[in-house]
Fold:
Amino acid sequence: DAGVTQSPTHLIKTRGQQVTLRCSPKSGHDTVSWYQQALGQGPQFIFQYYEEEERQRGNFPDRFSGHQFPNYSSELNVNALLLGDSALYLCASIIFGTQQPYGYTFGSGTRLTVV
Amino acid sequence: QKEVEQDPGPLSVPEGAIVSLNCTYSNSAFQYFMWYRQYSRKGPELLMYTYSSGNKEDGRFTAQVDKSSKYIPLFIRDSQPSDSATYLCAMSANAGNNRKLIWGLGTSLAVNP
Structure:
């Protein structure tokens, strides 16, 4: 049973560039959340997607956008990269309607470095 | 004041020690409490969860919930080098589809053989 798969594992970008990160949820999961984890910090909620729509959003600027595909996979796009965007980006999946908040499965993340 | 606070560490203990990891919160709306373990260069993995006051035990791990003090410690008995990781507490005010997890900064633990 495949867990959450994220790609790429590592990425180096230059300030001002755009980046796309990808996530395949755990088999059977239809809802994807994205988190940003800066070094030495806890994860910060970016947004959640279900049925190809953004359902919830954290306190992140519009430079952060996402998409969910019919197969439930998801992309996170960040435009006009800033040095402060350097972080581990985590994808977590769950079955929509699961009552337990502890039902999330996390991927290993994409390490983004902005130089 | 952050909603969820943890001592950042690093915490270094000898193998076999009892480890106490602290987590406090300020929002009394939080009802669901989780501890995650995160190894270097990996995503968080769920270690324990609870939604009721009192103790919950799972092998060498015990999580306590004290809602009156807003205090959620995690205890590790007979610590092992494989326990070396960052421990994150997370919590949520809601169940269902309006939940999002609020996280502490994490406590880095090193268990020395």
